[in-house]
Amino acid sequence: MNSILIVDDDATLCLMLKKFFERKEFFVTTSFSSVEAKKKIQSKFYDIVLTDLRMPEVCGMEIISFVKKITPKTVVVMMTSYADISSAIKSIKLGAYDFISKPFGPDEVLDIVNKALLHQNPVVKSKSQVSSGIQDYYQGKGKLSKQLLKHIDLIAPTLMSVLIVGESGTGKEIVAKMIHEKSDRSQKPFVAVDCGSISKTLALSEFFGHEKGAFTGAVTDKIGHFEAADGGVLFLDEVGNLNHSTQVQLLRALQERKVKHVGSNREVSVDVRILAATNEDLNESKQIGAFREDLYHRLNEFQINVPPLRERKSDIMHFAEFFLNMANNNLGKSVVGFDKSVEYVFTNYAWPGNLREMKNTVQRATLLTKRELITLNELPSSFYENTQEYLNPLFESEGERIKRVLNISDYNKSKAARLLNMDRKTLYRKIKIYKL
Ligand SMILES: Nc1ncnc2c1ncn2[C@@H]1O[C@H](COP(=O)(O)OP(=O)(O)OP(=O)(O)O)[C@@H](O)[C@H]1O
């Protein structure tokens, strides 16, 4: 059983994560204070420390340095808000394995934790440990969803490299997992590498492994991602972030199907199918010389485009229901659905963060609602502020309109006034006039 210490002064989040990880059979300890967390780290070994970045007494950065000093084998994952991304990158330099931006869904953090455990002990793990999460997949019924599935089915049984292209959060990693699952390599490992978080200095050792003593800090022999994925699939996420020298080495390994550990001249044969993903236009990176043309063609034997959520309109509410079910299971709740106004807002919203944003939004709303339905009250205001037209259907009298808005805001007058774009006093006056 793996042990995890969760450190966050947000007690609700801590307890929610505790419940979730216990269900996933982790041994969980929580700490709402960073000072208390340090004492716990001193007295017991944890496989994983999941810590918030901003806390009142000791900040997350200090926790990382502390863990790395006391128990260097413990893997640290940092939780941070969007605004803290640059500090999160600093945290990786200090020795954190990865970071996750709040708000996040429990499955996302589980995914990172599983990857972190693999990193801590990079032996080839069983398929289920490496490729977690594929059971949480909804394939959609709309035209674009069907086309996506057709391409996956077509390419899966082949040995071709696939470049999966799509905006952030559209589900590129899920597509890669499906290709693996539907291929005859499904019983072999699926190893996902986030190329964006690999440091330049450690990239070669991460991909190809190293021998003990090859460089300061190489205290044991370690196999790299290629050997870990031998016989299976190596998924290169955010492949456009690889630096030039790593691109050269990667291409060499792919062409020769052999790798050399850093610090050794011995070549080891590997049999790996490559799937790669990007949310940038690699064609453009190629033209400005940031991405090697030869590597691009080696990775892009077949291209799959994953559409943004806003283009999968007929599937939007199906995805929402799917995530609602998932949230109910994770949180032990039984919310039955979405209010009509939420349906309207969901189908007209641009979803810049795509399925990841929807999953987080639904999870948060499920946690917040005290009723059977999710209403606008549980959505961040950015959702409906840009969708004002739903407040103005044609032929509606002012009284009807105010009544409808009061309904969708659960008679919360401040919220209704904001939505109606009038001050509270005016709203009270109109409620009287129309006897609402
Ligand atoms: N078809 C799907 N059904 C259910 N959940 C999905 C689906 N596709 C994606 N998700 C969920 O959305 C989130 C983002 O998915 P994923 O990590 O695969 O996206 P991505 O395109 O690889 O993102 P990024 O470019 O940021 O790496 C994950 O939590 C994933 O579980």
TrEMBL record:
State the PROSITE patterns in the record.
RESPONSE_REGULATORY, SIGMA54_INTERACT_1, SIGMA54_INTERACT_4
UniProt KW keywords: ATP-binding, Nucleotide-binding, Phosphoprotein, Transcription, Transcription regulation
A GO BP term here is: regulation of DNA-templated transcription
Which parts of the sequence carry 4-aspartylphosphate? Answer: D52
Identify one Pfam family in the record.
Sigma54_activat
| CDD domains reported in the protein's UniProt record | AAA
Q: Which GO terms describe its molecular function?
A: ATP binding; sequence-specific DNA binding
Record domain Response regulatory: where: 3-117
> Start and end of every Sigma-54 factor interaction domain?
138-367
Give the protein's recorded name: Response regulator
Recall the taxonomic lineage recorded for the source organism: Bacteria, Pseudomonadati, Bacteroidota, Bacteroidia, Marinilabiliales
